[in-house]
Amino acid sequence: MTPTEYRWLLPSAMAGAELPGDRARSRRTVRDWAVDIAAFLCAAFAGMLTVAAIDADPTTPDAVVFVDSVAGAAACCALWLRRRWPVGLAAALTAVCVVEPVAAGALMVALFSLAVHRPFKPVAIVGAAALIVTPLQPSLRPDPGTSLMASTVIGLLLVLLALSWGMAVRSRRQLVVSLRERARRAEAEAELRAEGAQRLAREAIAREMHDVLAHRLTLLSVHAGALEFRPDAPAAEVARAAGVIRDSAHEALQDLREIIGVLRGPGDSGEGERPQPTLATLGDLIAESRLAGMRVVVDNRVAAPGDAPAATGRTVYRIAQEGLTNARKHAPGAEVTVLVTGGPGRGLGIEVRNPAPTEPFERVPGSGQGLIGLTERATLAGGELDHGPTDGGGFALRARLPWPPA
Predict the structure, then answer these.
(1) What is the β-pairing status of strands 335-343 and 295-300?
(2) If we measure between CA atoms, which residue out of 373, 308, 368 comes closest to residue 344?
(3) In Å, how far are 3, 14, 19, 402 from 177, measured between CA atoms?
(4) pLDDT tens digits for 277-310?
(5) CATH 1.10.530.10, applies to 275-406
(6) Ranges of each domain in the chain
(7) Smallest Cα–Cα separation from 134: which of 162, 168, 170?
(8) Which pTM value belongs to this model?
């Protein structure tokens, strides 16, 4: 489901929708039995009052009283079908009540049940029919103690009361279902947001780990390879290479500890944290690469590197770090040129360029994720980054980042 389609379910949208209790269940619950028995007893009580009033009239034949009693009992018993066929039952009782006032109580229960379990259209049709035929019953069988107008008005009010009460109950059920659906969707949306945030955090940590550790680990690989292929090297060179390996491993562990520290809770200790690299510390990165045996030419034309924004300087540092790492992996022995230009209001540019390798070498495997991460990092910083091979078979990495005016 797309975010555009992910809308709240409003009660008005559910006006014609089927509610959980609209379909008759194969097995009644305890609540269903209690409601059905109460409805039956109410209809039976109203029917008995009507039979008593008819029997009290001395002009009414005993046969009519008997037929009315049987019809009223049948109407009350038919209420057990109101969950399965509410429309048909209400329509049938509407027709019966034209000649049988004893079934009026059962009709009220049937109309109430119809309004609760069915949408507006069938309720309106059956309800209109009940309102139309309401004046017919007192006309065919008038009550000696009540006028035709009073009987008609009372009948119309009872029909409207049953229908409106049932529709109010249905509206409340729609509201409850809507609120439950909203809560369910809100929980689902919260889970999606949490998963998205976790995914973004994992991606950010993965990019940071690649940017930081790839540089250190390639140093380890280069010097370990030199020791492997030159076992007869002078002791001084072996000691120097071992020292670089030791220092690179130590720095890698420090960087890893710094990145993992992002995952710590607010109350965790911050021991081992180090300042983030900036443009001012770019020289340390170059010196470290030269110590590892790389030939690096630096042209830093930024007058005050320390004044560069921290986030922009850190991005430039990571781009230079990735460029040196790639040059060390894919063009060992080649001279690498690092050019940094810009200033406040003019933006900050960096270019890392290396020619084609001049001697055979063992390729270090790479996934290409570093350049993808750098592109995303530069885009998030408001700049742009491009990379690709040069005419002579080398490789160039260029980036342009914003530097607001002072």
Answers:
(1) parallel
(2) 308
(3) 22, 9, 8, 52
(4) 888 889 888 988 888 788 899 999 998 888 888 8
(5) no
(6) 19-187, 275-406
(7) 162
(8) 0.44
